[in-house]
Amino acid sequence: MIGKVVNDIEETAIAVLLGLMTIITFANVIARFGFNSNILWALELTVFLFAWLVLLGASYAVKTHSHLGVDAIVNLLPPRPRRVLALISVAACLVFSLLMLKGAYDYWAVFADLPPTSGRWFPTGFDMKARSQSFYEVQDVPMVAWLSWLEPLINYGDEYEKVPKIVPYLVLPLSMALLVYRFAQVAGQIWRGKTDRIVASHEVEDEIEEARARATEDE
Fold first, then answer.
1. What is the pLDDT of residue 163?
2. In angstroms, rounded to a whole number, what is the distance separating the alpha carbons of residues 92 and 113?
3. Cα 203 from Cα 218, distance rounded (Å)
4. Closest by alpha carbon to 169, among 118, 105, 126?
5. How many Å apart are CA 167 and CA 94, to the nearest integer?
6. Which of 14, 39, 74, 202 has minimal Cβ neighbours within 10 Å of its Cβ?
7. How confident is the model at residue 69 (pLDDT cuts 50, 70, 90)?
8. How confident is the model at residue 218 (pLDDT cuts 50, 70, 90)?
9. Burial of 193 (0-12, 13-18, 19+ CB in 10 A)
């Protein structure tokens, strides 16, 4: 059930982000060529939305096995070595995504008035001496009323003129946490024998779907 909820949230968020990007860009084009005007914050907001779309899409692509992959060598191996190689690969991906999660959290934490983790590669605690940057704002997107609760929470009661950076940069730790979750899911699928690779070339996608269908029927 948790996986279904996460999947539904991801798909809805991706659709909403893509729709908002289209609407904002279209509105700005109409304003520029139809009324000789400009929506000042449209470009920056579209860039933020695109970043959210790409970063959230990266974890969703792991779930749907949509990342590009070269499996010419993998296809030459018998089933057991292929599965071992897949487990090694997904372990490397998990380590990479955990490192990215640490870096993403540390970068975002100072904007949220939170302490980043200590340790260069792996967290060894929290750096309580880190300087808060919760007062940093984006360049063009104006502050909106429904985010005003952030002012007493992290900005010590001072008002924001623009949206604080904590909001758009939240996607960094969020997307990396989802990436860890998705690679953990794939690791479980490989361990249980439901698949033998992280990603597949288009030539074997149908075969993998058939294998998944058979595994589902067996369960």
1. 96
2. 32
3. 25
4. 105
5. 26
6. 202
7. confident
8. low
9. exposed
Sequence letter at residue 202: H
Half-sphere exposure of 50 (CA within 13 A, CB side): 10
Q: Is the dihedral of CA 31, 167, 67, 62 positive or negative?
A: negative
Among candidates 103, 122, 121, which has minimal Cα distance to 169? 103
> How far apart are alpha carbons 80 and 145 in whole angstroms?
57
Rounded Cα distance between 9 and 102, Å, is: 23
Closest residue by Cα to residue 93 from 31, 182, 159, 23: 182
User: What sign has the CA pseudo-torsion 150, 21, 57, 100?
Assistant: negative
> What is the length of the chain?
219
User: What does the pLDDT average to over 78-101?
Assistant: 91
Strand partners, 118: 125
pLDDT at 200 over 90: no
Which segments of the chain are extended strands (E)? 117-118, 125-126, 137-142, 162-164
pTM assigned to the model:
0.82
Domain that holds residue 143: 2-218
User: What H or E segment, with its residue span, contains residue 27?
Assistant: helix 2-35
DSSP, residue by residue, 48-100: HHHHHHHHHHHHHHHHTT-S----TTGGGS-HHHHHHHHHHHHHHHHHHHHHH
- Count up the domains in the chain and report the number: 1
The 10s digit of each residue's pLDDT in 139-160 is 999 999 999 999 999 998 899 9
CB distance 25 to 47 below 8 Å: no
Which tokens is 7 given?
A: 């999947």
Q: Which residues pair with 117 in a beta bridge?
A: 126
